[in-house]
UniProtKB/TrEMBL annotation:
<keyword id="KW-0560">Oxidoreductase</keyword>
<dbReference type="Pfam" id="PF02913">
    <property type="entry name" value="FAD-oxidase_C"/>
</dbReference>
<keyword id="KW-0808">Transferase</keyword>
<keyword id="KW-0274">FAD</keyword>
<dbReference type="InterPro" id="IPR004113">
    <property type="entry name" value="FAD-bd_oxidored_4_C"/>
</dbReference>
<dbReference type="InterPro" id="IPR016171">
    <property type="entry name" value="Vanillyl_alc_oxidase_C-sub2"/>
</dbReference>
<feature type="domain" description="FAD-binding PCMH-type">
    <location>
        <begin position="93"/>
        <end position="274"/>
    </location>
</feature>
<dbReference type="InterPro" id="IPR036318">
    <property type="entry name" value="FAD-bd_PCMH-like_sf"/>
</dbReference>
<dbReference type="InterPro" id="IPR006094">
    <property type="entry name" value="Oxid_FAD_bind_N"/>
</dbReference>
<dbReference type="InterPro" id="IPR016167">
    <property type="entry name" value="FAD-bd_PCMH_sub1"/>
</dbReference>
<dbReference type="Pfam" id="PF01565">
    <property type="entry name" value="FAD_binding_4"/>
</dbReference>
<dbReference type="InterPro" id="IPR016169">
    <property type="entry name" value="FAD-bd_PCMH_sub2"/>
</dbReference>
<comment type="similarity">
    <text>Belongs to the FAD-binding oxidoreductase/transferase type 4 family.</text>
</comment>
<dbReference type="InterPro" id="IPR016164">
    <property type="entry name" value="FAD-linked_Oxase-like_C"/>
</dbReference>
<dbReference type="GO" id="GO:0008609">
    <property type="term" value="F:alkylglycerone-phosphate synthase activity"/>
</dbReference>
<dbReference type="InterPro" id="IPR025650">
    <property type="entry name" value="Alkyl-DHAP_Synthase"/>
</dbReference>
<dbReference type="InterPro" id="IPR016166">
    <property type="entry name" value="FAD-bd_PCMH"/>
</dbReference>
Length: 520
């Protein structure tokens, strides 16, 4: 059975924790704390869809596949951004779907889309529910109702082609289930975003996700070979060859389409043999510029360590302070974690190490690299513990070219600090690198104001304006959702907007899919 996340927090409800004492002391020193409990026993808005309207769906999919119980609707309300959590904690469930529909096949999905067109019902595809950009909070005005199209029953490994190194995965498979099924064939996908434990294969494709091992394995969109999609206008099956010149690559229109163009039901992915060797290590650099320059040199030398993750001075300070080794080893500056997986880890370490040392890095050994691996899925639980004590924590991200990295970093950092005030901690890391540039991923922690939502939106607006003004992207891997929509038109221009609207009109003429998400 699929593990359900806590309705008001991240992750496994059994793993919810209070703020660890060591972290509490640190937070007291920098930000301050005060109890901010969540609302309990919150009633949902009534289901607005008449029972007769759902009868045809029950008849076609089975009664178990159409659910209107409050408990299920609550778990399909919005995603897991900090604003989503703040609303859930405050008892605001206004975006709850009227019903949750669980198709068991591609054909079931097609039936739901036809039904939704006939009855003018908005449909929100739901993968793992880990969206951080409001991608699951579609607009419902103008519709007879809104259903969450929950893909959790589409959870099978459909086929493996060992010779071509591809596998076909159903869209609702969560990260761990997909890795376990592939491991039984000696294979791995190698996509490990921080949301890995709950996010789904279809969600990765629909948002163009990028995982922690992107330096070596690439982004999720790089791994996609083929797609099966149910659209309101009919089926779309793409990817009949590893590459082709048959016009523009329509797979690119589906990747990142956030449920607005169709429902992805199967994804064919590139896979690779499970690594026989793994090693993680850390390096220190004098400052963020020196560390970023070293990463650039590694990647431009054609080297591909599996993980490359550089924290700026502030994030390095917080990471080290939260471990037992506070200042113990005299590490100043910035911490770089490097991971290697494959058949010749020793050779890769030597080659990458030579570049890092040549760029002024100091090798720190394995301990901190391994500590990062051990704790890499833990931070989202800590966010909840911090929200419990009145600390606003949220992340945002962008990407730019190497030559503009410093300018974009300074602009976004200053915008966040100015908006959130002097007591706010603004941290940054680089963990996705390309020959031409990199992403910048910011985390903020600030004392919660009386209206933390308004406080965050003001900071988010300032940071987003700074990104676009500096010529960077509004998102490197979190996607557009509803939250980034105001900036998308500035990034892609009026012709880009017209192209998106044209595709939408072709595949979803009655605009039932995810209204208000992605399309300006
Ligand atoms: C704590 C945390 C850490 C995160 N870390 C990362 C990270 O390291 N890297 C990263 O890239 N992202 C990260 N994210 C963001 C999020 O996990 C990704 O966007 C992920 O790809 C979403 O997958 P999902 O299955 O949860 O999709 P959902 O949240 O269910 O949906 C996301 C969007 O895609 C649509 N959608 C979902 N499934 C389908 C489908 N089958 N067909 C069509 N549309 C669909 C939805 O309607 C929605 O608009 C993180 C989020 C959280 C909360």
């Amino acid at each position: 059975m699929t593990l359900e996340m806590h309705a008001q927090r991240w992750g496994d409800p059994a793993a919810a924790e209070t703020l660890p004492e060591s972290t509490r002391a640190l937070v007291e020193a920098f930000v301050g704390t005060r109890p901010t409990p969540s609302a309990t026993d919150v009633a949902l808005p009534p289901n607005g869809l008449a029972a007769e309207m759902l009868d045809p769906l029950r008849a076609a999919l089975g009664a178990d596949a159409v659910l209107t119980e409050d408990g299920v609707r609550r778990l399909r309300t919005r995603g897991k951004s900090t604003p989503d959590l703040l609303r859930a904690r405050a008892g605001d469930l206004a975006d709850a779907p009227d019903a949750v529909v669980r198709p068991g096949s591609h054909d079931d999905v097609a039936i739901v889309l036809q039904w939704a067109q006939e009855h003018r019902v908005a449909v929100v595809p739901f993968g793992g529910g880990t969206s951080v950009t409001g991608g699951l909070a579609a607009r419902r005005e103008g519709y007879a109702g809104l259903v969450s199209l929950d893909l959790l029953r589409l959870d099978a490994l459909v086929a493996v082609d060992q010779e071509s190194r591809t596998a076909v995965l159903q869209a609702g498979m969560r990260g761990p289930a997909a890795e376990a099924a592939l491991a039984a064939h000696g294979l791995t996908l190698g996509h490990f975003p921080q949301s890995f434990e709950f996010a789904s294969i279809g969600g990765f494709a629909a948002t163009r996700s990028s995982g922690q091992a992107s330096a070596g394995f690439g982004r999720f969109d790089d791994m996609v070979v083929g797609l099966r999609v149910a659209t309101p206008a009919g089926d779309l099956v793409l990817g009949s060859a590893p590459a082709n010149a048959a016009g523009p690559d329509l797979r690119e229109l589906v990747l990142g389409s956030e449920g607005a163009f169709g429902v992805i039901t199967e994804v064919t992915v590139r896979v690779r043999p499970v690594a026989t060797q793994k090693a993680y290590e850390a390096w220190a650099f004098a400052d963020f510029d020196a560390g970023a320059d070293a990463m650039r040199r590694v990647i431009q030398a054609g080297l591909r360590p599996t993980v490359l993750r550089l924290s700026d001075e502030a994030e390095t300070m917080v990471n080290l302070a939260s471990q037992t080794a506070i200042g113990g080893e005299g590490v100043a500056g910035c911490l770089l974690v490097v991971g290697f997986e494959g058949a010749d880890v020793a050779g890769a370490r030597e080659a990458v190490g030579a570049v890092l040392a040549g760029a002024g890095g100091t090798a720190l050994g394995a301990e901190r690299g391994e500590a990062w691996v051990a704790g890499r899925f833990h931070a989202p639980y800590l966010r909840d513990s911090l929200l419990d004590v009145g600390v606003l924590v949220e992340t945002l991200e962008t990407a730019t070219f190497w030559s503009r990295r410093r300018e974009v970093y300074d602009a976004v950092r200053s915008a966040l600090q100015a908006s959130l005030g002097e007591k706010a901690l603004v941290l940054c890391h680089i963990s996705h690198v390309y020959e031409t540039g990199c992403s910048l991923y910011f985390t903020v922690a600030a004392p919660q104001a009386d209206d933390p939502l308004a406080q965050w939106w003001a900071a988010k607006r300032a940071a987003s304006d700074a990104m676009i003004d500096a010529g960077a992207t509004i998102t490197h891997h979190h996607a557009v959702g509803t939250d980034h929509l105001p900036w998308l038109a500035r990034e892609i221009g009026p012709v880009g907007v017209a192209m998106l609207r044209g595709v939408k009109a072709a595949v979803d003429p009655l605009l039932i899919l995810n209204p208000g998400v992605l399309i300006p």
